[in-house]
Specification:
It is a single chain. By secondary structure, the chain is an all-alpha fold. It has one domain: Orthogonal Bundle (SMc04008-like fold), CATH 1.10.3340. Helices cover 69% and strands 0% of the residues. The protein has helices at 5-25, 31-38, 42-55, 62-70, 74-81, 87-96. α2 packs across α6 (87-96) and α3 (42-55) packs across α4. It is globular.
């Protein structure tokens, strides 16, 4: 199958939008759970978004990128949905986290 660059970018953008909508709907899943299971979380995704924006010459802060991913300011999401990580979650994260976290 051959997909031209414009169509590939369109499909990638659609997949990104679907992923962010899915994550917005799964407020029960904490970032530490995502990190422990998949090695990335909402914050990672927003950092990658901000990095891509900066690489393309756009002036987008990490906070602005987080708002795009979370669908609201990060501080609001934290106060509404983030719970304290358990000792087990933290221990698992510390034993498996990537070097860049």
């Amino acid at each position: 199958m051959s997909i031209d660059d414009a169509k590939r970018i369109e499909l990638e953008a659609a997949a990104f939008r679907r992923l962010t909508e899915h994550l917005r709907g799964r407020t029960d899943v904490q970032n530490i759970d995502l990190m422990n299971l998949a090695g990335f979380c909402r914050n990672c995704l927003s950092n990658w978004y901000a990095d891509a924006a900066q690489e393309s010459g756009e002036d987008l802060t990490k906070d602005q990128a987080r708002e795009i991913v979370y669908g609201m300011p990060y501080s609001e999401w934290k106060s509404k949905y983030q719970s304290e990580a358990s000792a087990d979650q933290v221990a698992k994260f510390e034993s498996s986290k990537p070097d860049d976290h």
